[in-house]
Sequence to fold (323 residues):
Amino acid sequence: MIRTSLCELLGIAYPMFQGAMAWISDATLAAAVSEAGGLGIIAAGNAAAEFVREQIRIARAKTNKPFGVNVMMMSPYAEEIARVTAAEKVPVVTTGAGNPAGYMQAWLENGVKVIPVVPSTGIAKRMERVGAAAVIAEGGESGGHVGDLTTMTLVPQVCGAVRIPVLAAGGIADGRGIAAAFMLGAVGVQVGTRFLTAKECGVHQNYKNKVLKAKDIDTMLTGKRLGHPVRSLKTPFSRTLFEKEYDSSITNEALEKYAEGALRLAAVEGDEQNGCFLAGQAAGLVTREQTAREILAEMFEEAERVLQTARDSIQYDPIGSNS
Fold:
Protein backbone atom coordinates (compact mmCIF):
# COMPACT_ATOMS: atom_id res chain seq x y z
CA MET A 1 0.00 0.00 0.00
CA ILE A 2 1.30 3.43 -0.95
CA ARG A 3 2.07 5.66 2.02
CA THR A 4 3.84 9.01 1.98
CA SER A 5 4.80 11.74 4.44
CA LEU A 6 1.32 13.21 3.93
CA CYS A 7 -0.21 10.15 5.58
CA GLU A 8 1.99 10.63 8.64
CA LEU A 9 1.32 14.37 8.75
CA LEU A 10 -2.47 14.01 8.78
CA GLY A 11 -3.09 10.50 10.09
CA ILE A 12 -4.73 9.19 6.90
CA ALA A 13 -4.30 5.85 5.13
CA TYR A 14 -4.23 7.09 1.52
CA PRO A 15 -2.42 10.29 0.44
CA MET A 16 -5.52 11.68 -1.24
CA PHE A 17 -7.83 14.63 -0.58
CA GLN A 18 -11.36 14.73 -1.97
CA GLY A 19 -11.71 18.04 -3.74
CA ALA A 20 -13.97 20.74 -2.35
CA MET A 21 -16.93 21.32 -4.68
CA ALA A 22 -19.43 24.01 -3.70
CA TRP A 23 -23.04 22.80 -3.31
CA ILE A 24 -21.68 19.25 -3.60
CA SER A 25 -18.97 18.39 -1.05
CA ASP A 26 -21.05 18.11 2.10
CA ALA A 27 -20.49 16.33 5.42
CA THR A 28 -21.86 13.02 4.09
CA LEU A 29 -19.40 12.81 1.19
CA ALA A 30 -16.48 14.11 3.28
CA ALA A 31 -17.14 11.60 6.05
CA ALA A 32 -17.38 8.74 3.55
CA VAL A 33 -14.01 9.63 2.02
CA SER A 34 -12.40 9.97 5.45
CA GLU A 35 -13.87 6.65 6.58
CA ALA A 36 -12.40 5.08 3.44
CA GLY A 37 -8.92 6.32 4.36
CA GLY A 38 -8.56 9.59 2.45
CA LEU A 39 -9.19 13.13 3.63
CA GLY A 40 -12.77 14.20 2.99
CA ILE A 41 -13.34 17.93 2.64
CA ILE A 42 -16.49 19.97 3.26
CA ALA A 43 -16.84 22.85 0.79
CA ALA A 44 -17.93 26.02 2.57
CA GLY A 45 -18.38 27.89 -0.71
CA ASN A 46 -20.65 30.88 -0.19
CA ALA A 47 -22.57 29.23 2.64
CA ALA A 48 -23.17 31.01 5.94
CA ALA A 49 -20.94 30.22 8.90
CA GLU A 50 -23.63 28.44 10.93
CA PHE A 51 -24.33 26.08 8.04
CA VAL A 52 -20.64 25.22 7.94
CA ARG A 53 -20.60 24.63 11.70
CA GLU A 54 -23.56 22.27 11.30
CA GLN A 55 -21.75 20.36 8.53
CA ILE A 56 -18.64 20.04 10.70
CA ARG A 57 -20.69 18.51 13.50
CA ILE A 58 -22.50 16.15 11.12
CA ALA A 59 -19.15 14.95 9.80
CA ARG A 60 -17.90 14.35 13.34
CA ALA A 61 -21.00 12.27 14.05
CA LYS A 62 -20.29 10.13 10.97
CA THR A 63 -16.54 9.61 11.39
CA ASN A 64 -13.83 9.90 14.02
CA LYS A 65 -11.17 10.19 11.33
CA PRO A 66 -9.56 13.43 10.12
CA PHE A 67 -11.48 15.59 7.65
CA GLY A 68 -11.18 19.12 6.35
CA VAL A 69 -13.12 22.25 5.43
CA ASN A 70 -12.38 24.35 2.37
CA VAL A 71 -12.69 28.10 2.92
CA MET A 72 -13.16 30.16 -0.23
CA MET A 73 -11.55 33.52 0.45
CA MET A 74 -13.91 35.31 -1.98
CA SER A 75 -16.94 34.30 0.09
CA PRO A 76 -18.72 37.15 1.90
CA TYR A 77 -18.69 34.86 4.94
CA ALA A 78 -14.98 33.95 4.79
CA GLU A 79 -14.05 35.73 8.02
CA GLU A 80 -16.92 34.15 9.97
CA ILE A 81 -16.18 30.71 8.54
CA ALA A 82 -12.52 31.10 9.47
CA ARG A 83 -13.56 31.79 13.05
CA VAL A 84 -15.89 28.78 13.10
CA THR A 85 -13.26 26.39 11.74
CA ALA A 86 -10.75 27.65 14.30
CA ALA A 87 -13.23 27.37 17.18
CA GLU A 88 -14.27 23.87 16.07
CA LYS A 89 -10.61 22.90 15.76
CA VAL A 90 -11.15 21.30 12.37
CA PRO A 91 -8.16 19.01 11.66
CA VAL A 92 -7.44 20.53 8.23
CA VAL A 93 -8.46 23.71 6.42
CA THR A 94 -7.82 24.09 2.71
CA THR A 95 -8.21 27.49 1.09
CA GLY A 96 -8.71 28.90 -2.38
CA ALA A 97 -9.66 32.02 -4.34
CA GLY A 98 -7.64 34.42 -2.24
CA ASN A 99 -4.97 34.94 0.42
CA PRO A 100 -5.62 33.26 3.81
CA ALA A 101 -2.70 34.92 5.59
CA GLY A 102 -4.95 37.06 7.79
CA TYR A 103 -6.53 33.98 9.37
CA MET A 104 -3.43 31.82 9.72
CA GLN A 105 -2.59 32.76 13.30
CA ALA A 106 -6.01 31.80 14.63
CA TRP A 107 -5.97 28.50 12.77
CA LEU A 108 -2.46 27.60 13.88
CA GLU A 109 -3.17 28.54 17.50
CA ASN A 110 -6.08 26.09 17.46
CA GLY A 111 -4.05 23.23 15.99
CA VAL A 112 -5.54 23.47 12.51
CA LYS A 113 -3.27 22.39 9.65
CA VAL A 114 -3.71 24.84 6.79
CA ILE A 115 -3.16 23.58 3.25
CA PRO A 116 -3.88 26.24 0.57
CA VAL A 117 -4.56 25.58 -3.09
CA VAL A 118 -1.94 27.45 -5.14
CA PRO A 119 -1.67 28.26 -8.88
CA SER A 120 1.98 29.39 -8.92
CA THR A 121 5.35 29.04 -7.22
CA GLY A 122 5.20 32.61 -5.89
CA ILE A 123 1.98 31.99 -3.99
CA ALA A 124 3.28 28.60 -2.80
CA LYS A 125 6.35 30.29 -1.28
CA ARG A 126 4.17 32.92 0.38
CA MET A 127 1.95 30.23 1.93
CA GLU A 128 5.00 28.40 3.25
CA ARG A 129 6.24 31.60 4.91
CA VAL A 130 2.96 32.20 6.75
CA GLY A 131 2.83 28.67 8.18
CA ALA A 132 1.05 26.38 5.71
CA ALA A 133 1.54 22.68 6.52
CA ALA A 134 1.49 21.79 2.81
CA VAL A 135 0.18 23.20 -0.47
CA ILE A 136 -2.01 21.85 -3.26
CA ALA A 137 -0.60 22.71 -6.68
CA GLU A 138 -3.67 22.78 -8.91
CA GLY A 139 -3.36 22.83 -12.67
CA GLY A 140 -5.82 24.27 -15.16
CA GLU A 141 -7.22 20.82 -15.97
CA SER A 142 -9.31 21.01 -12.80
CA GLY A 143 -13.00 21.77 -12.67
CA GLY A 144 -14.19 25.06 -11.21
CA HIS A 145 -11.91 28.09 -10.81
CA VAL A 146 -8.56 27.43 -12.49
CA GLY A 147 -5.20 29.06 -13.15
CA ASP A 148 -3.14 29.21 -16.32
CA LEU A 149 -0.52 26.51 -15.75
CA THR A 150 -1.05 22.82 -16.38
CA THR A 151 -0.55 20.21 -13.68
CA MET A 152 2.42 18.75 -15.55
CA THR A 153 4.32 22.04 -15.47
CA LEU A 154 3.08 23.49 -12.18
CA VAL A 155 3.64 20.57 -9.80
CA PRO A 156 7.39 20.04 -10.32
CA GLN A 157 8.06 23.78 -10.14
CA VAL A 158 6.15 24.11 -6.86
CA CYS A 159 7.93 21.01 -5.50
CA GLY A 160 11.22 22.69 -6.29
CA ALA A 161 10.18 26.00 -4.76
CA VAL A 162 9.05 24.93 -1.26
CA ARG A 163 10.19 22.56 1.47
CA ILE A 164 6.72 21.64 2.72
CA PRO A 165 4.75 18.72 1.21
CA VAL A 166 3.04 19.29 -2.14
CA LEU A 167 -0.15 17.67 -3.40
CA ALA A 168 -0.99 17.60 -7.10
CA ALA A 169 -4.46 18.44 -8.42
CA GLY A 170 -5.97 18.79 -11.86
CA GLY A 171 -6.66 16.01 -14.35
CA ILE A 172 -6.24 13.15 -11.85
CA ALA A 173 -9.01 10.55 -11.89
CA ASP A 174 -7.25 7.19 -11.97
CA GLY A 175 -4.14 5.41 -10.73
CA ARG A 176 -2.07 6.52 -13.68
CA GLY A 177 -2.66 10.13 -12.62
CA ILE A 178 -1.58 9.35 -9.07
CA ALA A 179 1.59 7.64 -10.31
CA ALA A 180 2.36 10.61 -12.55
CA ALA A 181 1.89 13.02 -9.64
CA PHE A 182 4.42 11.10 -7.56
CA MET A 183 6.90 11.14 -10.45
CA LEU A 184 6.52 14.94 -10.60
CA GLY A 185 7.53 15.18 -6.95
CA ALA A 186 4.16 15.37 -5.17
CA VAL A 187 3.48 13.30 -2.04
CA GLY A 188 -0.29 13.26 -2.48
CA VAL A 189 -3.16 14.16 -4.78
CA GLN A 190 -6.46 15.98 -4.65
CA VAL A 191 -9.28 14.48 -6.71
CA GLY A 192 -12.58 16.21 -7.39
CA THR A 193 -14.34 15.16 -10.58
CA ARG A 194 -14.23 11.43 -9.91
CA PHE A 195 -15.98 11.91 -6.56
CA LEU A 196 -18.91 13.58 -8.35
CA THR A 197 -20.09 10.06 -9.15
CA ALA A 198 -19.45 8.58 -5.72
CA LYS A 199 -22.55 6.86 -4.39
CA GLU A 200 -22.30 8.99 -1.24
CA CYS A 201 -22.26 12.21 -3.29
CA GLY A 202 -25.64 13.93 -3.03
CA VAL A 203 -25.35 15.91 -6.26
CA HIS A 204 -28.37 15.67 -8.59
CA GLN A 205 -28.43 12.51 -10.72
CA ASN A 206 -28.52 14.62 -13.90
CA TYR A 207 -25.11 16.00 -12.88
CA LYS A 208 -23.71 12.50 -12.35
CA ASN A 209 -25.09 11.35 -15.69
CA LYS A 210 -23.46 14.25 -17.54
CA VAL A 211 -20.08 13.42 -15.99
CA LEU A 212 -20.47 9.72 -16.83
CA LYS A 213 -21.28 10.58 -20.46
CA ALA A 214 -18.48 13.14 -20.85
CA LYS A 215 -15.66 12.65 -23.35
CA ASP A 216 -12.17 14.10 -23.29
CA ILE A 217 -13.18 17.27 -25.18
CA ASP A 218 -16.42 17.96 -23.31
CA THR A 219 -15.25 20.75 -20.97
CA MET A 220 -14.65 24.42 -21.68
CA LEU A 221 -13.45 27.60 -19.98
CA THR A 222 -15.61 30.61 -19.30
CA GLY A 223 -15.03 33.68 -17.16
CA LYS A 224 -11.70 34.80 -18.63
CA ARG A 225 -13.10 38.26 -19.34
CA LEU A 226 -14.01 38.61 -15.67
CA GLY A 227 -10.57 37.54 -14.51
CA HIS A 228 -11.56 34.25 -12.92
CA PRO A 229 -11.80 31.46 -15.51
CA VAL A 230 -13.97 28.47 -14.67
CA ARG A 231 -13.89 25.00 -16.22
CA SER A 232 -17.23 23.27 -16.71
CA LEU A 233 -18.95 20.79 -18.99
CA LYS A 234 -20.21 22.09 -22.33
CA THR A 235 -23.90 22.89 -21.89
CA PRO A 236 -26.37 25.43 -23.29
CA PHE A 237 -25.54 27.67 -20.32
CA SER A 238 -21.75 27.52 -20.68
CA ARG A 239 -21.88 28.04 -24.45
CA THR A 240 -24.17 31.06 -24.08
CA LEU A 241 -21.96 32.52 -21.34
CA PHE A 242 -18.91 32.08 -23.56
CA GLU A 243 -20.65 33.94 -26.40
CA LYS A 244 -21.73 36.76 -24.07
CA GLU A 245 -18.12 37.28 -22.96
CA TYR A 246 -17.26 38.37 -26.51
CA ASP A 247 -20.24 40.70 -26.81
CA SER A 248 -18.94 44.21 -26.04
CA SER A 249 -22.48 45.50 -25.52
CA ILE A 250 -22.85 43.35 -22.38
CA THR A 251 -21.32 44.75 -19.20
CA ASN A 252 -19.25 42.74 -16.74
CA GLU A 253 -22.00 43.27 -14.17
CA ALA A 254 -24.53 41.72 -16.53
CA LEU A 255 -22.23 38.76 -17.10
CA GLU A 256 -21.87 38.22 -13.36
CA LYS A 257 -25.64 38.43 -12.99
CA TYR A 258 -26.20 35.91 -15.76
CA ALA A 259 -23.92 33.36 -14.08
CA GLU A 260 -25.31 33.93 -10.59
CA GLY A 261 -26.81 30.78 -9.08
CA ALA A 262 -25.98 28.59 -12.08
CA LEU A 263 -23.96 26.07 -10.06
CA ARG A 264 -26.81 25.56 -7.61
CA LEU A 265 -29.20 25.01 -10.52
CA ALA A 266 -26.93 22.22 -11.75
CA ALA A 267 -25.96 20.59 -8.44
CA VAL A 268 -29.27 20.82 -6.59
CA GLU A 269 -31.92 20.98 -9.31
CA GLY A 270 -30.15 19.20 -12.16
CA ASP A 271 -31.15 21.96 -14.62
CA GLU A 272 -29.45 20.93 -17.87
CA GLN A 273 -30.36 24.14 -19.70
CA ASN A 274 -29.50 26.83 -17.17
CA GLY A 275 -27.08 25.07 -14.81
CA CYS A 276 -23.30 25.27 -14.67
CA PHE A 277 -21.90 21.74 -14.38
CA LEU A 278 -18.36 22.19 -13.07
CA ALA A 279 -16.04 19.32 -13.99
CA GLY A 280 -12.39 18.83 -14.87
CA GLN A 281 -10.81 17.50 -18.04
CA ALA A 282 -10.52 14.08 -16.39
CA ALA A 283 -14.30 13.64 -16.65
CA GLY A 284 -13.72 11.39 -19.65
CA LEU A 285 -11.97 8.90 -17.34
CA VAL A 286 -15.00 8.58 -15.05
CA THR A 287 -17.13 5.66 -16.24
CA ARG A 288 -19.32 4.44 -13.36
CA GLU A 289 -20.72 5.19 -9.95
CA GLN A 290 -18.82 3.67 -7.03
CA THR A 291 -18.59 4.09 -3.29
CA ALA A 292 -15.86 6.35 -1.96
CA ARG A 293 -14.13 3.28 -0.57
CA GLU A 294 -14.13 1.60 -3.99
CA ILE A 295 -12.79 4.75 -5.67
CA LEU A 296 -9.85 5.08 -3.28
CA ALA A 297 -8.96 1.37 -3.32
CA GLU A 298 -9.18 1.09 -7.11
CA MET A 299 -7.14 4.21 -7.81
CA PHE A 300 -4.31 3.29 -5.47
CA GLU A 301 -4.21 -0.35 -6.55
CA GLU A 302 -3.81 0.87 -10.13
CA ALA A 303 -1.16 3.38 -9.06
CA GLU A 304 0.86 0.60 -7.43
CA ARG A 305 0.68 -1.52 -10.60
CA VAL A 306 1.71 1.42 -12.78
CA LEU A 307 4.66 2.30 -10.57
CA GLN A 308 5.80 -1.32 -10.42
CA THR A 309 5.55 -1.65 -14.19
CA ALA A 310 7.66 1.47 -14.55
CA ARG A 311 10.30 0.03 -12.22
CA ASP A 312 10.36 -3.25 -14.13
CA SER A 313 10.39 -1.82 -17.63
CA ILE A 314 12.72 1.17 -17.41
CA GLN A 315 16.39 0.30 -17.68
CA TYR A 316 18.46 2.93 -15.97
CA ASP A 317 21.67 3.58 -17.85
CA PRO A 318 23.69 6.44 -16.32
CA ILE A 319 25.54 8.62 -18.81
CA GLY A 320 28.90 7.10 -19.60
CA SER A 321 28.20 3.73 -17.99
CA ASN A 322 28.84 1.91 -21.28
CA SER A 323 31.90 3.89 -22.27
Summary: The chain has 13 helices and eleven strands. The first helix runs from residue 5 to 10. The longest strand covers residues 67-72. The chain has a mean pLDDT of 93.
